[in-house]
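Annex B. Sample input.
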Amino acid sequence: MLGAVNFGSHDLAHIKLNNQIIGEAQRFAHDFGSEAHFVTAYADRNRAPDRVELARVCGVEPERMHTVRPRRPASLAGHCRSASAPTSS
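Annex B, continued. Sample output.
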């Protein structure tokens, strides 16, 4: 399960939406015996978000919190596809 969240906004509506996305992703992952992963995009290469802190907020291990600075809008979609692709063990 991959949930896209926007931690760059301080708007109350975005904060509420982020919390709903986190809760629903966690619930779906639990219900289907899967893991929740989260992705957030950021624009300023000098101010990358703290992935460990964001993982804590999302209730996941840091390895399941993905941050991406897309060069173009399609970059985020490509990252989401690669992050959700099955890996061989």
